[in-house]
Amino acid sequence: MLDYDEEAGRYDASRGGEPRAAAAARAVLDLIPLGAHDLLDIACGTGNVTRRFPAVRTGLRVTGVDLAPSMTRIAATRLPGAVVRADSRRLPFGDARFDAAVSVWLLHLQSGPEDVRALIGECARVLRPGGVYVTTVDKAASHNVGSDIDAVLSTRPRGPVRDVAADVVACAAEQGLAPAGQTVFRGHGQGRSPRRTIADLRRGWFVTLPPGSPLADAFAARLAALPDQDRPRPDPVFQLRAFRKPPHQPHPPKPPAALAG
């Protein structure tokens, strides 16, 4: 698992920079109702996506949350006074505080299904009635673009997948959230080359291939044998799903008073 506190300084540059952030923000906003005023971005990272929400949609107020201190420090320079350091499974906000909650590239990092449930439960709790939760799903599958790199990596050990779309839909339903749309966006600049994939392997990107292990070294050797070591393969295409919290139900009408006989 990557240390995202250590990763903060190179995070944007290593993940597509401005084009990827712009594509992610546009796709998220396509799923957010125009009437939304308060948006919570959970695991906002450096704030490179978060800051685009109010820039694109006038009148939208944003709050960013992240657990890594280095990430929140960078995000706070982009969104002064609007970034909080907190655990996404225990959000420091009252009930029904936001019109929208967003978690991009987060569910796949959870240690178990109980953490996914806690995170989605917290999103449901802080949403106002009629509010929308937007999240990425199937992140690992998005990176499989059918390249020669993917063919090499196809035989690596697989860990549990925490953001399978069907599981996320089921978990959201448990929290009273109903499907409310979906879209995709391109991870511009994230197409891997063999050399870049080896570098990612060496720094712990692939959880089941610990850096320095014989198995990791064997995969690095196979990747090093591929042609065009510096040519990026196609960019991944990420999936977004939206879920809506039901509006308040109107009180049932009172039965008519009995007429006097």
Question: What is the strand and helix layout of this fold?
Answer:
Layout: H1 4-14, H2 17-30, E1 38-42, H3 52-56, E2 61-66, H4 69-78, E3 83-85, E4 98-103, H5 113-126, E5 127-137, H6 139-142, H7 148-153, H8 165-174, E6 178-186, H9 194-202, H10 214-224, E7 237-244
Parallel strand pairs: 1-2, 1-4, 2-3, 4-5
Antiparallel strand pairs: 5-7, 6-7
General description of the model:
The chain has 261 residues and is an alpha/beta fold. The protein has a single domain, classed as 3-Layer(aba) Sandwich (Rossmann fold). 36% of the residues lie in helices and 18% in strands. The protein has 10 helices and 7 strands. The protein has helices spanning 4-14, 17-30, 52-56, 69-78, 113-126, 139-142, 148-153, 165-174, 194-202, 214-224; strands at residues 38-42, 61-66, 83-85, 98-103, 127-137, 178-186, 237-244. It has a 7-stranded mixed beta sheet with strand order 3-2-1-4-5-7-6. Strand 1 (38-42), helix 3 and strand 2 form a beta-alpha-beta unit. The longest helix has 14 residues, at 17-30. Mean pLDDT is 90; it is low at 249-261.
Structural class: alpha/beta
Q: Average pLDDT value?
A: 90
How many separate domains make up the residues? 1
Strand content: 15-25%
- SSE succession: HHEHEHEEHEHHHEHHE
The radius of gyration is 21 Å
Largest β-sheet summary: 7 strands, mixed
CATH homologous superfamily classification = Vaccinia Virus protein VP39
Number of strands: 7
**Strand ordering within the main sheet:** 3-2-1-4-5-7-6
What is the 3D form?
globular
Number of helices: 10
- Write down the CATH topology: Rossmann fold
By CATH reckoning, the class would read: Alpha Beta
CATH architecture: 3-Layer(aba) Sandwich
Which residue ranges are poorly predicted, with pLDDT under 50 across at least 5 consecutive positions? Answer: 249-261
Binned, the helix content reads: 25-40%
